[in-house]
Design a protein that fits this description.
The complex is a heterodimer of chains A (about 110) and B (about 120). Chain A has strands spanning about 5, 10-15, 20-25, 30-40, 45-50, 55-60, 65-75, 75-80, 90-100, 100-105, 110-114. Chain A has about 110 residues and is mainly beta. In chain B, β5 (about 30-40) and β6 form a beta hairpin. Classes of the chains: A mainly beta (about 110), B mainly beta (about 120).
Chain lengths: ~110, ~120
Amino acid sequence: GAVVSQHPSRVICKSGTSVKIECRSLDFQATTMFWYRQFPKQSLMLMATSNEGSKATYEQGVEKDKFLINHASLTLSTLTVTSAHPEDSSFYICSAILVYNEQFFGPGTRLTVL
Amino acid sequence: AQSVSQHNHHVILSEAASLELGCNYSYGGTVNLFWYVQYPGQHLQLLLKYFSGDPLVKGIKGFEAEFIKSKFSFNLRKPSVQWSDTAEYFCAVNARSGGGADGLTFGKGTHLIIQP
């Protein structure tokens, strides 16, 4: 149980295009999901908290108009990187809360912007 | 805001050796503490967590960690490592006041290699 999936696992896009990444909790409902970003050989950095039915809460320094988050249902949150640039290339990881304060992580999505 | 420091970025041990990975945090309030492991090619998995109570917590795969409040530390230990423990280990915290729905602040990770 407590499986979180992400789709796609890898995506390559051209600069200026938008990319949507999906995060799904497969066998449980998650009111709260999180989006993290991981640069090569560095740690995970929290980008935003995604709450079902309400607006996402972004961490300081994260552009909300660039990283659009939609938590449309209790099992799906999406992150859309708008007008992507090479500096947005990174590993994006989502997590979902099943029980109090325990996050289950997805496998991540590798984004490469050419 | 919280911050987490992991002292060892790369650790190489032989099988059966004892392991201790350091983790210190900085935060003015009460925190919840976690250790996650990421095996090669896999997603992050929870090893153990501390919310309150006994400061010595036991996790999966024979790992344990001790919360020392006075030192702001939460070091991870295992008495005898195995080759299969080769992985990346992350210490993480979030604020207790968040009601259990706060994002995590991670340390930079420790890359552990166990030699047969």
